[in-house]
Amino acid sequence: MKKVFLLSIATTVALSAFAQHAKSSITAVSPIRSHSVAGDHIPAAKTTAVGDVDTLGHITSADTLALYYAAGSNSDSGYMTGMNAFGDKGFAERYDVNFGTTSAQVTGVIAYFTGVVNPASTKTIKLYTWSVAAQSPNVLGPHYFNSGLPRTALDSVTVPVTALGISTVSGGSDTIKSYTFTTPSPYISNFYVGYTINYNAANFGGDTIGLVTSSQGERNTWGYRLVGGDTIVNNANVAMLANGSWVDFYTEDFGVANHFFIFPIITVGTAATSVEGVTRNNLTIFGNYPNPATNVTNIKFALAKATEVTISVTDMSGKVVKTMTENYNAGTQIVELNTTALAAGEYIYLIRTTEGDGMASKMSVIK
């Protein structure tokens, strides 16, 4: 069985007294899993399983990937974004659809899990998209409200924990994986992407999985906004408690300000004419055109501020076939992708910024 290595640091996470769980005993937070880093790129091993991806993309020293213990510095407590002794059952990130978009589809999910998995495990997770509920009270006080928690399940796919890309080999590397929904629904409003898992919090049964995140303090959205006399908590990400209720991850659960490494695979209308798209903080994705492509396609996205962007293209077996990294100014960008060397078929491209924003879409190549 593979060992999961965590790096201990002296920093104490300042947990809020309003957390739903009794988690104030957390005194050590550990960025997970030491990687051998070449420059700013963190490699991940390629396997032959469908959906595996052989590179994580571009990560800067300011955007450190992490996995945090749920309590203290003992992995027996589980992980903040996975199976843990508190029985948390799910985690999700919010994505916004700009007004005017009427034909967006989320065709699947890209996610990065780590931890320990028994090769004989029969556990499964369920990857979901959910609609966003109306504002609801937050436990901070009578004039505090959540901006919108997950409401109705839109699409889902069940995945065995043994198929999450978590290595079962000692010293092995984990991999990002992509998953496809069978019959994607149309999306015309904001949504969440995440997963749920059922397990016995008192006995993990040889499995302890968690969703990789950015590090504490690397959340790139404001935690609150003021509306009249009320304070609205911006629900960038959320957790499902053992009782099945959703709460804000930062203000009502662990008090950690970060983002989860889980991205939707999106199709948005016709990118050539669309003036709207799907937004995640600094990044808005419009799609690509023409699609299908023969020799060239144009990937269209927009940035709220200047940043470095990496576009990684993978085939449907998970092999990265092309990667482009460049600095872009704020505004709408159209990046030409030469497809002459690509075989006919379907591909997924992941757009990721150095701030940790990322979304993916699917394209086709014909000959």
TrEMBL record:
Stretches of the chain forming a coiled coil according to its record: none
Record flagged with keyword Transmembrane: no
UniProt KW Signal keyword: yes
Cleavable signal peptide: 1-22
InterPro entries, sorted: Secre_tail
Keywords: Signal
Domain Secretion system C-terminal sorting intervals: 289-363
Protein's name according to its UniProt entry: Secretion system C-terminal sorting domain-containing protein
Protein origin, superkingdom: Bacteria
Lineage: Bacteria, Pseudomonadati, Bacteroidota, Chitinophagia, Chitinophagales
